[in-house]
Structures are given as structure tokens and as C-alpha cells.
Design goal:
2 copies of one chain form a homodimer. Chain A is α/β, with parallel strands linked by helices. Chain A has 2 domains: 147 residues, Rossmann fold, CATH 3.40.50.1000; 85 residues, Putative phosphatase, domain 2 (DNA polymerase, domain 1). The first copy, chain A, contains 11 helices and 6 strands. Chain A is globular, with a radius of gyration of 18 Å. At the A-B interface, α7 and β3 of A face α7 and β3 of B.
């Protein structure tokens, strides 16, 4: 059993957990390329999937020490150039490519995220613990109204999840023991990695993150809380 | 002339600029020691001054490389033990000493700070750029309603102001050129150090920070804006 009074801060995964990266990218790119002359038409959800598919391998080079720490905006940009080539999208200016890359700063929250997190913020400190870089999370939050108390994660730890340093450095900056931190994520692997560092864990069900997905539909055994959404998490914590 | 449209983020000094450290500490310690049996009576503003007087020398050891980076809570605690001895205050438990040390997390904002910064937040990203550690700034903000977009500064840069790294690392995390950042402070030395890094600068007049102070009464030549308070800064930036 998790005692809500034992928790002092909530640390959140962002992509998929707080915001709908796939739907947001598909909508944003559809509008951007639909406004161009001539229009460019692709299956933008597939483009989003291809882009996201390059995410873990790019971070893995940094995690493995094959490359020094670089922020996620940089990895996204390198991956974007490959994706554009793979989908035969050419003729874009560097300004266009920069704008497209910053779609990760313009992701929309799930409908329950802002209201649920606003309830949670009354009692707890809310920190992002994302692989997204600081400016990405700040810009996204200002656009969407996500009520962070502060932005932590890969860039402030200079380590990408699921490396232990990413979690431990966040707890250290919050001056909390890991057991006073509740990691909130829609992905079991993220929660298992946090739990290994001593964090308590809350799973948020996001069945629409990738339609038809067959993994991460519910919390694995050992996860402390299995929540339908952020409002359910707030209710389970008595907020 | 400063063009408000050239600025994307405001970075703030906190102690003295956003919050009244001296008055808050005097009030808090007066209440804490007044509740004890037997009461302990001292000139608590003098205690605050003595504590603050040890602040720069303690950071200087870290800046000079004589000591690895440690967060300000640690330096404050070491300095507090000296101050308690100097004022012959004894018989405190370690829990009491920890509570007193965290008075820096309980500082009250100047009357204009929250309303002025809430106006500024509508247009700009607001980041702390303080020598205070992350949890100190987060706890203070939750108690006082200070509307940060994120917390930056000494702990995320692992360098104490006025070292250039403290300013440059904040701009880098915001993905901004220094000239897109406006450093806001009630101390000219802080602003000169930021300006050397390429930041634009806004002085906030805080004549009550230390009653009778003869320095930092107005902006030095070369500072971009000289403001009566945070509302005046908001007005000067058209917010």
C-alpha cells in the first residue's frame, strides 16, 4: 500500500503520459504541409511513428558513452532529417526544418492532464522527469498550461532515462529520498527503472498513445498504483 | 534601448530581488524562539545579517575550487552553526536546527513580486537564476505563489554566481542566446556579471532590503532598465 502522506513530490514522464505526442505530431504536420504550395501529403501518423522509432537508438548512443550528452532537440533534429529523406520530403528550408523539429514543443496534453495535475499540485511538488530538454518542456508547458513546479530530467541530470542517474539526480535536486518521490508514467519500463532507484510508482493508462498497442495497457505487477488517468491518480492520492 | 520583443526569457535573482530575506528571517526566528520555554531573545535582524554575512565567503571557497560544488542548503547550515555559537544560542535539537536552516525556504516575497511576475509570465518564460538550490526555490515558490516556469541557477549549473557558467548554462538550458535573456536583480554586481555574458539587464530598486544601505540604491550606468519594482518592470516591457 502506498501512503499518500509518505510522498512529497511527483515526477512525471511527459511524452505519452502527459501529452499525446503521436496525435499532436500528426495534426501539426498535416496542417503545416497542407498549407504549402504544392501541398505535401503523407500518412503523418506513420511519419510520427518513424520519427519516434529513432528515439531510443539515438539516446542509446549517449547512454552507452559513444557520444557525450546532447539535448533531445539535437537528437530529434538529426532523426528528423533521416525521416524526411525516408518519406521523400524535400525542398524544405532550414527554417522550416527547425519549425517542424519544434513540434515536440507544441504537443497537446491528454484531456485529463492539466485538470488532474492542477489538483495534484495543491498538495505535491510536480516536476517533469522527461528525456525532453528544459526548453522543450518549458515551451510545451506555457502553451498547454501544464502546471510544473520545476523542470527536471535528462538535461539537468545529463543522463537519459532509464539510466539510474536520471532518477537519482532528480530526487537529489528535490532534496528528497527516492521513496518520497512518486514516478508517474504510462510505460512500465520507466516505472521499473525508477523503482530500482527507490521511487514509488504510478502507472497511467494511455491506450490511445499508439492505437492498437499491445504493451503497456495496464500496470505490471509491483507497480504501486494503476490509474485510469491523472484525475484517477489525484483521487487515489486524496487530492 | 531595450526592445521588449528581443527578449524571450526573464531570469531572476531571488534573495533580495523577489523575496525579503532579512525581514522574513527576523520575523520567522522571532516567532520560533518566542514560542520556546524559556524564550530566547536576540536582535533577529542582526542574526540574519550575520548569517548572510557568511554567504559570500562560503560560496567563494566553491568558486575558487577549494571545495567541490555543494548546494546552498549545506552552506547555510554550516554558517548557521557558527552564527548560533556567535549569538550564544544553545540547546537546540538537530531537528530545530534543520527547521531554522529551512527559513530560507520560507521567505516572503515583496508585495509587488507575485502580481508583477504574474503579468510578466503571460509574455515571457520566467526562470529563477539564484544561488539557492532547486528545492529551496521550489518550496519557497509553492508557499508564496511565485509563478516560475522553471528553476535554474547554481545547482543546475553547478556554479555560483557571479561565475559566468551560472548565467551561460541557464541561457543554454533555455535554448536562447544570452541577448534574449533579461537578468533581473536588485544588485548591480549580479547584473554586471550577467551583462558580461551577453544578458540584457533590469535593476529592481529594493531600498528596504537592508535599511540604511548605501549601495545598490539605483541602477549603475550601463544597466538597461532601472525599475521601481516588478510592476514597473512589467509596465516597461509592455506587459
Amino acid at each position: 500500500m502506498l501512503d499518500p502522506a509518505s510522498i512529497r513530490a511527483l515526477t512525471f514522464d511527459v511524452f505519452g503520459t502527459v501529452v499525446d505526442w503521436r496525435g499532436s505530431i500528426a495534426r501539426d504536420l498535416g496542417e503545416f504541409f497542407g498549407r504549402r504550395t504544392p501541398r505535401i501529403e503523407r500518412d503523418w501518423a506513420k511519419v510520427a511513428d518513424a520519427w519516434r522509432g529513432k528515439y531510443q537508438p539515438a539516446m542509446e548512443r549517449v547512454r552507452g558513452g559513444g557520444r557525450g550528452f546532447v539535448k533531445l532537440d539535437v537528437l530529434h533534429l538529426e532523426n528528423l532529417r533521416e525521416v524526411l529523406a525516408e518519406f521523400s520530403i524535400a525542398g524544405l528550408s532550414e527554417e522550416d526544418i527547425g519549425h517542424i523539429n519544434r513540434v515536440w514543443h507544441r504537443l497537446d496534453p491528454w484531456p485529463d492532464s492539466v485538470v488532474g495535475m492542477t489538483r495534484l499540485k495543491r498538495r505535491y511538488a510536480l516536476a517533469s522527469l522527461s528525456n525532453g530538454n528544459v526548453s522543450l518542456i518549458v515551451t510545451m508547458a506555457k502553451r498547454a498550461g501544464i502546471p510544473w513546479d520545476t523542470v527536471l530530467g535528462a538535461e539537468t541530470a545529463r543522463a537519459y532515462k532509464p539510466q539510474p542517474e536520471a532518477y537519482l539526480r532528480a530526487a537529489e535536486m528535490l532534496c528528497l529520498a527516492p521513496a518520497q518521490c512518486l514516478m508517474v508514467a504510462a510505460h512500465n519500463a520507466d516505472l521499473h527503472a525508477a523503482a530500482k532507484c527507490g521511487f514509488r510508482t504510478a502507472f497511467i493508462r494511455r491506450p490511445l498513445e499508439i492505437p492498437g498497442k499491445t504493451h503497456d495497457l495496464a500496470a505490471d505487477p509491483g507497480i504501486d498504483l494503476d490509474c485510469a488517468d491523472m484525475n484517477d491518480l489525484a483521487a487515489k492520492l486524496g487530492c
